[in-house]
Amino acid sequence: GESVGLHLPTLSVQEGDNSIINCAYSNSASDYFIWYKQESGKGPQFIIDIRSNMDKRQGQRVTVLLNKTVKHLSLQIAATQPGDSAVYFCAEIPRPTSGTYKYIFGTGTRLKVLA
Amino acid sequence: DTGVSQDPRHKITKRGQNVTFRCDPISEHNRLYWYRQTLGQGPEFLTYFQNEAQLEKSRLLSDRFSAERPKGSFSTLEIQRTEQGDSAMYLCASSLSALAGGGNEQFFGPGTRLTVL
Asked: How many contacts, defined by CB atoms under 8 Å, are there between A and B?
């Protein structure tokens, strides 16, 4: 079935270094992708999104890259801070014409920032 | 706080009991979603409402599960005859449809953690 998965379940990064979290998706018809951050005991929090007609989008300290050829999504966090420690999920959103609005989430990558 | 709220935050129950969770979406949002999340996994879609209409249900939503959104505002998720496998975090999210001026982003609540003993 359709799925969104992550290559690395845990990523440990030194404070101040850059982090790269990867995600593979399987549905080439997906229209939109979102990265969420989830801290312990909280719901997922929106970080950044990207449409399928884009290759790159930048936010504040975060960049999302989309490679549709290999169905790969990545989240880059610059100058990683202790507050970035969390689990990160990518979510795949189908086209509105597909008749569904459900997000498909991957397993998640835990980011640990080392002091 | 004008975000999505859920109640209760934690629920411990014995196997076989019924439980009901409540979700209050962001007030102007017309779409509401329920997800289930188990430890170490991403959220799994359960069901979706547009206003008061339940438009999509996952096969994960067995006949022991029922969700309602009677007035198109808050929603409830009931689980009957709970089983230990129902233990999970139940997340609610809301969004505003594009026709109503929104984007695709779903805003999540803090979740209700259910433990079935």
From this structure: 56
Mapping DSSP to helix (H, G, I), strand (E, B) and coil, where does residue B22 land? strand
Rounded to the nearest 5°, which phi and psi values hold at A83? Answer: -70, -10
Q: Are A8 and A110 in contact (CB under 8 A)?
A: no
Q: Tens digits of per-residue pLDDT, A24-73?
A: 988 878 888 999 999 988 899 999 999 999 999 999 999 999 999 999 99
- Which residue in chain A has the smallest CA separation from B10? A41
Is residue A83 helix, strand or coil?
Answer: helix
Residues 6+ apart with CB under 8 A from A98: A29
Gap between the Cα atoms of A11 and A5, Å rounded: 15
Q: Is the CB of residue A45 less than 8 Å from the CB of residue A37?
A: yes
B21 touches chain A (CB under 8 A): no
Separation in Å, CA of A52 to nearest CA in chain B: 13
Taking the CA of residue B66 and the nearest CA in chain A, the distance in Å comes to 18
Dihedral of the CA atoms A23, A28, A30, A34 (nearest 10)?
20
Amino acid at A92: E
| E-assigned strand segments in A26-93 | 32-38, 45-51, 56-58, 62-67, 72-77, 86-93
Q: Is A104 on the interface with B (CB under 8 A)?
A: yes
